[in-house]
Amino acid sequence: MVQFKVYENVDEVPEEWDTLVMHDELLKKAYLKALETAPPDNISLFYLGVFKDEVLIGVALVQRVQLYLKDMFRDTKVSCLKTFLQEVLSKVLKGNILVVGNLTHTGQHGMYFDSKKITKTEFYNYLFQGVAEIEALIKRTQGKTIRLLMLKDFFEDDALLFEDAFQKENLHRAIVQPNMIMDVREVWGCNEDYIACMKKKYRDRYKRAKKKLNSVVCREMTLEEVEANAKVLHNLYRNVSDNASFNTFILPEQHFYTYKLLLKENFRVFGYYLKGELIGFFTLILNNNQLETYFLGYDKEHQHPNQLYLNMLYEMAKFGIDHDFKKIVYARTAMEIKSSVGAKPKPMVIYLKHTNVILNMLLKQIFRFMNPSKDWKERHPFT
């Protein structure tokens, strides 16, 4: 007998949850607790468990996102047509949406099931039933109607991707920016090996970037330092976040401290200091054999002269190599500069539908026009 259950608090999920999702730290209870404790103000979490004979065989993270921002798109100097489409899309997306997955992190960290105990068809059948129950719960307890459903993020060859089930639910397929991922080569025993594999042009670029740091020092921050600098970290993060072309949330001030407190050694914070002043930082999540880059921030005054962002990308690579990770996930945005340090674009898609039939048809047309083209130049730094 197969059944499902919806949970509103991670402390309520079954004990065997972590055993089922051993492969993904971002689906484990410690990570979910951190996100639940310090989420963006407009995001709340639900958890879905699928059981067979009372044994947990599938899970999903579902986020309710309230999009009431006046202008989700920022000034990106795009064409008049795209500006118009962006304005229409922001109106279509405005309101309450449900996301199967994690809006705060790039990648498929939203669901998993044991394929030996349940088929894809069965799992998605119960997943969509669970989503309907969450919609009804929100309507009953808060009087809010869900306007849009989104399933994110799938690689095009993802084992979890199931077109038949998505088409049955009238979900539209939309291409999104690729996930930038660097495979760590076996010959890279240390950072020097990584640099040695570069073409001369990129080795010189690496040396120039390091030289431009001048007196800036990068070092890992302790839990106590993260707590003491929570406001500074948040301001530096906002410097970068507020310049994004499209943003659906803002992290709270205590977010990084909460993650460090609850995830411990699986969450790392590195600060950039100039004469003792914190002028930049980046964060990492250790996810088994994958190093997941997370949010960062910097003082705009020092970004260009000290090449802070590029140096952060190099430092992320060094950490990944030094700690024997197989992949370094650089996530979305800034594709060209990430490719210059060795990351490769891996295409991703999302699936979504609007509850309004007319707007659902409009949504499909908008995303058809707005599918991101490769308008950036991929770099190839290695010999």
Strand-residue fraction? Answer: 25-35%
CATH class membership of the largest domain: Alpha Beta
Largest beta-sheet characterization:
13 strands, mixed
- CATH level-two architecture of the largest domain: 3-Layer(aba) Sandwich
C-alpha termini separation = 56 Å
Structural class: alpha+beta
Tell me the series of helices and strands, N- to C-terminal: EHHEEHEEHEHEHHEHHHEEEHHEHEH
Secondary-structure blueprint:
Elements lengths: L1 E6 L9 H4 L8 H9 L5 E10 L2 E13 L12 H14 L1 E6 L10 E3 L6 H23 L3 E10 L7 H6 L3 E12 L7 H6 L3 H13 L4 E4 L2 H6 L1 H12 L13 H9 L3 E8 L2 E11 L2 E9 L1 H4 L4 H15 L4 E5 L3 H6 L3 E11 L2 H14 L13
Helix pairs in contact: 2-10, 3-14
Summarize, please.
37% of the residues lie in helices and 28% in strands. By secondary structure, it is α+β, with helices and mostly antiparallel strands.
Descriptive report:
This protein has 383 residues and is of the alpha+beta class. The chain folds into two domains: 2-175 and 347-370, Gcn5-related N-acetyltransferase (GNAT) (Aminopeptidase, 3-Layer(aba) Sandwich); 185-325, Aminopeptidase (3-Layer(aba) Sandwich). It is built from 14 helices and 13 strands. Strands 1, 2, 3, 4, 5, 6, 7, 8, 9, 10, 11, 12 and 13 form a 13-stranded mixed beta sheet that branches. Strand 10 and strand 11 (290-298) form a beta hairpin.
